[in-house]
TrEMBL record, chain A:
Family, per entry: Belongs to the ABC transporter superfamily.
Protein keywords: Amino-acid transport, ATP-binding, Cell inner membrane, Cell membrane, Membrane, Nucleotide-binding, Transport
Presence of the UniProt keyword Cell inner membrane in the record: yes
GO cellular component: plasma membrane
GO terms, molecular function: ABC-type amino acid transporter activity; ATP binding; ATP hydrolysis activity
Species the sequence originates in: Pseudomonas laurentiana
Name this protein carries in UniProt: Amino acid ABC transporter ATP-binding protein
From TrEMBL, chain B:
Record-linked Pfam families: BPD_transp_1
Organism (species): Pseudomonas laurentiana
Annotated family: Belongs to the binding-protein-dependent transport system permease family. HisMQ subfamily.
Entry GO terms, CC: ATP-binding cassette (ABC) transporter complex
Name by which UniProt lists this protein: Amino acid ABC transporter permease
Compartment(s) of residence: Cell inner membrane; Cell membrane
Ranges for domain ABC transmembrane type-1: 13-201
NCBIfam families noted in UniProt: HEQRo_perm_3TM
UniProtKB/TrEMBL annotation, chain C:
Domain of life from the UniProt record: Bacteria
Gene3D superfamilies in the cross-refs: MetI-like (1.10.3720.10)
Example GO biological process: amino acid transport
UniProt protein name: ABC transporter permease subunit
GO terms for MF: transmembrane transporter activity
């Protein structure tokens, strides 16, 4: 699917010893995480544990204080050859290789559904309009919104908005898609349609990092489950082990409460 | 009123329209520029702009037009009436427009910017493709409202002897000795012009409301 | 510095102009506000009179203030109705701004929840008492910023009256400059005066905002 296919042995995302503070509060401490191509990683933890911040550091929406992050083998945030921080243009080039789906959808309200999907391919990648349109139509079909091309975001339900946002992220053929609590702002009866789309994506081999509260999804879809507590990764395991035989008391408690 | 009087009246309406129109066109762009500079919060420049906006909003257009027209020559600047009128109206309306644009800036959501950055847009592309179009839509009702205010304020230019749609009624009645018909006719023309703007404003509001998800 | 000493010599002209402007302004906005409130009360029911008033209010919104002053001062004498520049100017200010005040209040009235009104009716309020005690206070608190804007517009509109020969603040500057040929200084003085008046108005409105804030009203 990806256009700039990097060598298969290079991980899609690799984070080493990443830390981040807001003022005096240390929100992330020595995070290490490797996400291989085609893997789905679910990030769990109570609110305030640093899950979203971790995700937002990966595409440099938040700047970590220490540590390194590589996207498909390329360091983000620091231009290593020049030995300085990346400028906006360099950052943009790397961010184009990651897609992000937000809790609040963040669709651009002045653009129609299909324009939302076409916008970045045209104005970031310089793709011809016709080609972007073909891709957008295909992606909207994939998320089940083929009939909504020309609708404006304000006419859509939350679930539909989020599916458009997923199509928008896919349109850039990203190396990895970052999901920041994609179903938390939805009505309960709309959660399923978004999770179904995400499940299908995982089957197609997309690399995904998903911050979520949906235990069932994490159990059924992920290759790895990561549990964050006070900015630390305290458990990292395949779902079978994580859900049936967690190592820490904290995770056991968490699973009990969530069950 | 005879045909000659109507012709004079229409000439007056044209004067009002082209002078106001020029001031509006420059003032909208000027206002955007001021708002952009203010967003940069440059020390000293920012305070200066705040002072300008505060003064321009408090000064009656009549007073300001007179001031510009009469005092420019003492600084060695020669302005004809029309230029003085356009400059005064532009400086007046730009102050209001700057505040309208700024409000649109300040209310713009951070989340949309993040969505754009996450797709790999640069700040420039984001501004041009995502932010500016929405700012235009959300500012437009306010800007059109300010346009009708400016036209309602435009009779101020009569004070320096420009024969606009208001002043022309004096001209006509000086000949006919019947002041009422030309004044009522002028009122009718103003109603027409400003009703169109109010209609446009309502349409712009409808469109802007679509952005509020 | 001779120009500035001339200004000092001409202080009486400025002072008289300032008094005229302040007098015109305060008298007209008080009358206009009361008239505006009366108009909104009349609009509560759906009579023919209400429809006519609504039309009149909408009409005023499409007219420049000066054309109304022209109508009263230059137009009406043709019908035998002659008034001084003062009377015509004051009347024009009152009628014009009453329409705008009414429009502001009515806009807020239309979106006011009916619950308050029903609660008052259930307590046996008469329509007038209901309007004065329940509806109007809320409208005024909620529309405070818009009403404040309108006050400043009214202040600036007084300057138009210099064109119908009324001797107010702008006319004072004009007469000083034509007598002593010091246009810049003369106008700087009156512009600063206008500015100070509007700053005072804004400060007063900010104080008034506390009244609403204490009662938990948000700004509109």
């Amino acid at each position: 699917m990806s256009e700039y296919t990097s060598p298969a042995n290079v991980p899609a995302v690799s984070i080493k010893r990443m830390s981040k503070s807001f003022g005096d509060i240390e929100v992330l401490r020595d995070i290490d995480l490797v996400v291989n191509k085609g893997e789905v990683v679910s990030v769990l933890g109570s609110s305030g544990s640093g899950k979203s911040t971790m995700l937002r550091c990966i595409n440099w929406l938040e700047e970590p204080d220490r540590g390194t992050i590589h996207i498909a083998g390329q360091r983000i945030g620091i231009n290593e050859q020049a030995g300085r921080k990346m400028n906006n243009k360099e950052l943009a080039t790397l961010r184009a290789k990651t897609g992000m789906v937000f809790q609040g959808f963040n669709l651009w309200p002045h653009l129609s559904v299909i324009q939302n999907v076409m916008e970045a391919p045209i104005y970031v990648k310089g793709m011809p309009k016709e080609q972007a349109r073909v891709i957008a139509i295909e992606l909207l079909e994939k998320v089940g919104l083929a009939d909504k091309h020309d609708a404006f975001p304000f006419t859509l339900s939350g679930g539909q908005k989020q599916r458009v946002a997923i199509a928008r992220a896919l349109a850039m053929s990203p190396e990895v898609i970052l999901f920041d609590e994609p179903t938390s702002a939805l009505d309960p009866e709309r959660v399923g349609e978004v999770l179904t789309v995400m499940k299908n994506l995982s089957k197609e081999g997309y690399t995904m990092i998903v911050v979520t509260h949906e235990m069932e999804f994490a159990r059924a879809v992920s290759d790895q489950v990561v549990f964050l507590e006070k900015g630390l990764i305290i458990e990292k395991a395949p779902p079978a082990k994580f859900f049936s035989n967690p190592e820490t008391e904290r995770v056991r408690k968490f699973l009990e409460i969530s069950a | 009123m005879n045909g000659q009087a109507w012709l004079l009246l229409l000439e007056g309406a044209w004067t009002t329209l082209w002078i106001s129109g020029t001031a509006i066109a420059i003032g909208v762009i000027f206002g955007l520029g001021i708002a952009l500079v203010r967003m940069a919060r440059i020390p000293f420049v920012d305070q200066l702009l705040v002072l300008y906006i505060s003064l321009a909003r408090a000064t009656p257009l009549v007073t300001f037009v007179l001031f510009l027209f009469l005092s420019a020559p003492t600084f060695g600047i020669n302005m004809n009436r029309n230029t003085a009128a356009i400059v005064a109206m532009t400086l007046n309306t730009a102050a209001f427009n700057a505040e309208i644009w700024r409000a649109a800036f300040l209310s713009f959501s951070r989340e949309q910017k993040e969505a754009a950055l996450a797709c790999g847009m640069t700040s420039r592309v984001f501004f041009r493709r995502i932010m500016l179009p929405q700012m235009i839509s959300s500012s437009l009702p306010g800007l059109v409202n300010e346009m009708s205010f400016l036209i309602k304020g435009s009779p101020a230019i009569a004070v320096i002897g420009i024969v606009d749609l208001t002043r022309v009624t004096n001209r006509i009645s000086a000949v006919t000795y019947e002041p009422l018909p030309p004044i009522l006719a002028a009122a009718l023309l103003y109603m027409l012009i400003i009703s169109i703007l109010l209609k446009l404003q309502a349409m712009a509001e409808k469109k802007a409301n679509r952005l509020a998800m | 510095m001779t120009e500035w000493s001339i200004l000092w010599d001409a202080r009486e002209i400025f002072f008289n102009g300032l008094i005229a402007t302040l007098g015109l302004f305060s008298l007209s906005i008080i009358c206009a506000f009361v008239l505006g409130c009366v108009l909104v009360y009349q609009l509560e029911d759906d009579s023919v009179l209400s429809k006519a008033l609504r039309l009149l209010i909408n009409l005023m919104r499409t007219l420049p203030f000066l054309i109304l002053a022209y109508l009263l001062y230059y137009g009406l004498p043709q019908l035998g109705l002659r008034m001084s520049a003062w009377t015509a100017g004051l009347l024009a200010l009152i009628v014009y701004h009453a329409a705008y005040f009414a429009e502001i209040l009515r806009g807020c009235r239309l979106i006011m929840p009916e619950g308050y009104v029903e609660a008052a009716k259930a307590h046996g309020f008469t329509p007038l008492r209901l309007y004065l005690r329940i509806v109007l206070p809320q409208l005024v608190i909620k529309t405070r910023p818009l009403l404040g804007n309108q006050l400043i517009i009214a202040l600036k509109d007084t300057a138009f009256l210099t064109i119908i020969t009324l001797q107010e603040l702008t006319a004072a500057a004009n007469s000083v400059q034509s007598t002593y040929f010091i246009p810049t200084q003369a106008f700087v003085v009156v512009i600063v005066l206008y500015w100070l008046i509007s700053i005072c108005l804004e400060l007063a409105l900010k104080r008034a905002a506390r009244f609403g804030a204490k009662r938990g009203f948000d700004y509109v």
